[in-house]
Structures are given as C-alpha cells and as structure tokens.
Amino acid sequence: MVTPNTPVEPPMTAAVAGVPAGRDLTATTRTIGLGLLGVELATLAVTGVALYFVYRPAAPTAFVVSIYRAGAADGPDAADVVRTIHQVTSALTLPTAVLVAVLLVVGPAAPLRRGLGMAHAAAIPLLAAMASLTGYLVPWSMLGLHAVTVGQTYDGYGWLFGDTIRFAVVGSVEIAPATLTRWLALHALVLGPALTSLTALAWRWTRPERGRTIA
Q: Which of 39, 122, 127, 197 is deepest in the core (most CB within 10 A)?
C-alpha cells in the first residue's frame, strides 16, 4: 500500500554488458563500438608484426616458388592464415571506425560533439581509410634479385635492409626497395599508432565518470 509519505522508487534500468544502469542506448553502442575497434586494431598489430617476418605473395608464380618457396608443402600455411586474418580485419576496421566516429558526435551526451572533439572523431575514420589505402601499397608479388642464391628465402620484409634486391613488384608496378620501405613505415609506424592513440583517447573521454565534452 502506498501512502502520501511513502517514497516512490525510480524505475530500474537494466545494465547491459557491464554498462552502468541509466546510460542511453547510444552510449552503450558507443562503448561496444570502441571496444570492437580496439580488438580489431590489436589484431591488426599482431598480424602485421607477424607478416613482417612471414609474408609471402598469395599466388606466387612458378619462378618465384623456385626461389623462395622451394620444397614448401601445397595448401595454406601459417603465412596464408596470418595474411587472411589481417585482410579480413582490415576490411572490418574502416566501417567500425566510421560507426564509432558517428556515435562520438551524436546525442546530447556525446563526448566529442563540438570543436576539437568533432575533429578528433573525424580523424578516426580518416586515419583508418589512409591505413587501409597504404595497406594495398606494401604487399609485394615478385622480387628482382641482383643474383640468385640457391636455398635463399625472401619471406617477409627483412630483405628491405639488405642489398640483394634490385626492385619489388607491387601489383604490376616495379618500385625501388627504398620506396617500399617508406610506404611500410608510413603504414605500420605512423598511421597505425596514430589511429590506436586516437581510439584510446576517445575511449578515455567516453568513460562515464568523465561527464563532460571536449569543446
């Protein structure tokens, strides 16, 4: 029985996936999106480091096989699996980054809805797009050697720091090792860390205890 002096309990809102009760659906989706983007970036970092050492072209010619894959078993190997995981995750990262950017600026409680905050949000999908683009510039399909050494392998990208390669073929274009080195550095050492840093900072600003926006 409720009397005039009986306090009325506010309606309960269920917490979702560890998100405090009372948060709106946009905030919950924002948290999930940032978490998903973080997982994708971590996957790209791990597989990217692995590819530096084990990368091989997806469909090498018989000539290239004779140089760097002699005696290898037919069928997918570790390099194929790592490359596929990296490619699939990369394809998912850009739409995730776009979704996160929208959620960071939408809603009255959006943490990055004004000024520098909006620039921060817009930079996340922009960096993701640039990283995706440069990702197409680093997978080589063939290598031009100064001299062929029997039994020598050329997996990964360690050969960039030697003098045995005259050129690399990316797509159908021959490029100098120095050019490929610059593209690889931009992709792995500039864009990747920058995107990760902005994502981590956005996560920090979306924590419930922050309770304010970036002007």
A: 127
